Structure formats: structure tokens, C-alpha cells
Amino acid sequence: MARELNHGDRSDEWTPTGLTPPARIGAWVRLVRPKQWVKNLLVAAAPFAAGTLFNIDVLVQVALGFAAFSLASSGIYAINDARDVHGDREHPRKRHRPVAAGVISPRDATRGGIVLIVAGIGFAVLTTAPLFVAVLVTYLATASAYTYWWKHYPLADVLVIAFGFLLRALAGGALVDVRISEWFVIVATFAALFVSAGKRFGEMRQLGENGAAHRPSLDGYPPGFVEFILAVSAGVTMVGYSLWAFEIGGTGGIPWLAVSIGPMVVGVLRYAQLVYRGEGGAPETLLFRDRPLQAIGLLWIIVLMLGFYA
Predict the structure, then answer these.
(1) pLDDT tens string 27-75
(2) pTM for this prediction
(3) Helix (H, G, I), strand (E, B) or coil at 215
(4) Which of 62, 98, 205, 294 is the most exposed place for a label (fewest CB within 10 A)?
(5) Contact predicate 114/80, CB 8 Å
(6) What is the pLDDT of residues 187-242, one digit of tens each?
């Protein structure tokens, strides 16, 4: 690893040596975490549920919104890595991130993050949807507050992460001016809480007694409390989704939306199974790696498409 420290072990005083240009590019790609962009597909959720996603004008808006959230969130990740460099070095997986490994300096990561955030706001402006711009700015303010403060407080850290997921889902409605139902908000809120609690539970299982060295807030969770959040959020998500599906499922032909309850519930249970194995610390990794979860998700989307577009 090419890291040469000067004047002690200050993380912002070092000079990278022996890195080829492709290696430097690869480090910057890892810094912005493109795998995490899958979360930003949530901006398509509201237009998809409204049956308008495949309208060309809507697709353009959703593509711009996806790009805006991807750039902005990558900027936040870069700044977060610069802030968390010492804690990340105590984590078995995160210590390999470019900033923690000494490949990119915290100062450069922060500057790159600011550039990405500005670019994300620029794409948001291109959508010509002022409400979407407001949602993105709210996300940036919330994510920045998390980076600097909220992640140090138990429960608040989980709630703020969940709020970030919820904002992505609400952004889709702001993009194309579709009405978002109360059931959509309930399902999106508790599904987001389920995933964010799974992240914390995964970290607690993976790090064990050393968890506080990486994330001090982990010490503030009483035994069983995160599991309680998981159970409540999963239950409300499944019940809320079921009530939504029966309410708008229609009366003629095959009730595809009601049928979609089956794969949706199985998907939640499969995800919970992985979380309880301690694999929920990186949700995006599970989506790319777990074949059963991918198959269940694909089936769920197909059934939903039949319900919305058949």
C-alpha cells in the first residue's frame, strides 16, 4: 500500500507513492461507492407505482433525479470517509477504503466530495422541478448532520439513515408531480427503518465487543433493542403493503397487486434471515450477491408490472 506519513501519524499529512494512474482512478471510483447508487433507484418508485414510469418525459426526469442523488450521495460518502478515517481503520472491511488505507488524503476526499455535491445539485436543477431540488437539499443537510453529529447518538443514527431512504422515495413524486398515497409513505418509512436497523445490527454482529472503537453509538443500544426495531419495522412494512395492495388492487381479472404480497413478504423474510446472520451491514452488497434475494426481487417486480401496466 502506497502511503508515506510525515510528521507523525496525522491522516492529512502523507504523500502517496508508487501508484499508477489506473490505480489512482480505481481508488477514486471506490471512494464514490458506485454500488451504493442502487439505493437511488428509489426515485423511480413513485412513478412506477403511478404507472407512468415508462413515459419518455418521466424517464428523462427520473434519470436526471437518479444522477443527482448518485452524485450528491457520493459526495457525502467521500466527506464521511475523510471524517471517519481513524474509526474506519478499526473496522475489518472499511479499513480497506481508499482514505482509511492512505491511498487518498482526507483533504482531497473532502474537496472531491464538495465537487460531487455541487454537480448533484446541478443535475437536480436540470429537472426543472423545484420541489425535487428542495428534497435533495434536505437530504444533503440531513446527511451532513449525520456525518458530523447524529451518527454518534444511538437511535438517532438509525432514524437519520432511514430518513435518507425515505427522502429518495419521496423525491420520485416530486420529480413528476404524482400523488403519493399515505400507504406509500407508511411502507417506505418502515421499510427504510428496517434496512437501517439491519445495518446497525450487522455491524454489532460483525464487530462484537470492538464495535465501539469503530462506532461509539453502538455502545448505547441495550441488548435486544435493535432486534425489537427490526421486528416492529418489518411487521408494519408487511401489513402496510398488504393493506395498500388490497385497497388499489382492483376488482376485475387477476388481482396482481394482491398477488405481489407473497414475494414481498418472502423478500422481507429473506432479508431478515441475512440480517440475523450478521450480513446486513452493507445492504447494497446483499442485493448484488444474494441470488435468492435477487430472484425474489425480480419476481416481485414482474408481478407489480403486471398489476400496474397489464
Answers:
(1) 888 898 888 898 899 999 888 887 788 889 999 999 999 999 999 999 9
(2) 0.82
(3) coil
(4) 294
(5) no
(6) 999 999 999 998 888 878 776 666 655 666 777 888 889 999 999 999 999 999 99
Q: Is 279 strand, coil or helix?
A: coil
Distance, CA of 79 to CA of 86 (rounded, Å): 13
CATH code reported for the domain at 32-178: 1.10.357.140
Burial (CB count within 10 angstroms: exposed 0-12, middle 13-18, buried 19+), residue 20 = exposed
How many angstroms separate the CA atoms of 199 and 280, rounded? 5
* For the chain, domain boundaries: 32-178, 181-310
Rounded to whole angstroms, what are the CA distances from 245 to 182, 183, 200, 239, 248?
Answer: 13, 9, 30, 10, 6
Pull the grid cell for residue 203.
455491524
Q: Where are the alpha helices (DSSP H) in 84-181?
A: 85-88, 106-126, 130-148, 156-176
